[in-house]
UniProtKB/TrEMBL annotation:
This is Allene oxide synthase. One of its GO terms (biological process) is fatty acid biosynthetic process. Pathway: Lipid metabolism; oxylipin biosynthesis. The keyword Mitochondrion does not apply. The lineage of its organism: Eukaryota, Viridiplantae, Streptophyta, Embryophyta, Tracheophyta.
Amino acid sequence: MWSSHAFTDSDRTTARPFFLIPTLFLSLPTPPNPGGERERERERERKRVCDKMAATGAFSTPISSTRLPVSSYRTPTGVPPFSISIRSSISNRPSTLSANAPPADLPLRKIPGDYGFPFIGSIQDRFAYFYTEGCDAFFRSRIRRYNSTVFRVNMPPGPPVSADPRVIALLDAVSFPVLFDTAAVEKRDLFTGTFMPSTDLTGGYRVLSYLDPSEPLHAPLKKLLFFLLSHRRRSLIPEFRRAFGSLFSSLESDLSKQGKVDFGPGNDRACFDFLSRALLGRDPADSPLGSDAPAIIMKWVLFQIGPLLTIGLPRIIEDATLHSFRLPPALIRADYNRLADFFRESAGPVLDEANRLGISREEAVHNLVFSICFNSFGGMKILFPNIVKWLGRAGGRLHTRLAAEVRAAVRSNDGQIGMRMIEEEMPLVKSVVYEALRIEPPVSMQYGRAKRDLLIRSHDAAFEVKTGELLFGYQPFATKDPRVFDRAEEFVGDRFVGEEGERLLRHVVWSNGPETEGPTVENKQCAGKDFVVLVARLLVIELFLRYDSFEIEVGSSALGSSVKLTSLKRASF
Ligand code: HEM
């Protein structure tokens, strides 16, 4: 799945880190002088409102996880497929979700910010977001301006692509989790934010990612994806090692010839080969698709989320075209049909399962295209270079610890890699993956529409939200909230090791839910959550089985980071 914001390296190095904003700016107005009767009455009124809203369930309430215990690799449909291997030991709920009433001293505050003049306001905000400020600075400057991590703002693309760009931004670890609460927010057609790409790009269907759990097809389609991810589970690790072993061999050879090598294109090929062979049992090389899939998917994604990207054209031209109009789906139809044909021909057992679940074969085909090409390939295309980037930057000492852990575990298991062994014997590998997902969540923006009047809390205040208002969370500001994480802007490889570290996992929410909970047919948590964590761990394992250390150069790209390897030091112990 794709991030709607292209992280650029310059975002991170030149923009002022969120945690450096003086606490002065983050602390909201102090409660009024307790000596005055009028102020005391106002306080009592605030409390009455809060109590009333809490009593009527207006607060974001804990998600009732219906995650089932999984005691073997047998994975019935409807149950997330890999729970056995990578479930966290933490069972308590995030503190951010558990409180039903704000502390008595939390002031009720009107949501600051405004949307400006119709049309003009949203174009101004869009220009600032993409060009004059840049994404992170855009949010940071408004936190300072409004002295609040919750405020009103227009989100791109705005008109004419999206009819209504007005949102309430949630930019801290306390307010953000309301977006996971499907009792409080509706997620219908909000996967890409304030606009939805044409269904002509997905075979005429509204695919699962756009469905709210209250819609009848949400549950069967999510069950189908649980089946997809689990029905060939024994081939996951071997196929991963095959695809990524061959990637690293070719990277080594190119590096020795050229002195540096781009990780991206080879990673794209390896990801699609792995996904097809592991999930469908079909090698794309033996199909009419050949090696064309990554390029086709890139184009197809541009047609869907172009209005949210910057691709390096001159500002005015890019804004007047890419951000202002939808690319006509007819231009990509022939390519898309090649993808759909591949899935139609290769996904027999999954399509049979779809029939059993009451889903038409055609609807299943287009959902498979989306979940494998957009959700899975897209997510890995962003996450894997991110992992290589953060590990590369972390340097030799962390590399040596990872190599020692990985090799000791694999040796003690007769050279084999298994899910249980990863879970039990590789705490540092697990931690670095969570840390990469925390510091740079690959899908950075989530949306939800208030189903009823809500009272939303930040660290410092409570805010009333009306039914129908659109809530928007920029996840990096929640997962790098300095009031939750120490050294929040730093990559701390062993942050999640040990009991203390594991307790923090509830604040890692890359999957649209806490890491300590799992996807179900009732929630909107990523169907591939456990799969993603598994393949990310396999990437780290593959790296440190082969190499003692490596070095990188980092640049930016329209989607994620561009990482070049400049040295790979072969395993010496
Ligand atoms: C790095 C990889 C991935 C990331 C970062 C990621 C992230 C996310 C996020 C943030 C959401 C919630 C979006 C929203 O509603 O606002 C989501 C939903 C979803 N993801 Fe993933 N995802 C990844 C990989 C996968 C994979 C491998 C699958 C496999 C099939 C998948 C399938 C889905 C589906 C179907 C939904 C919608 C769930 C529902 O409707 O209940 N994702 N993902």
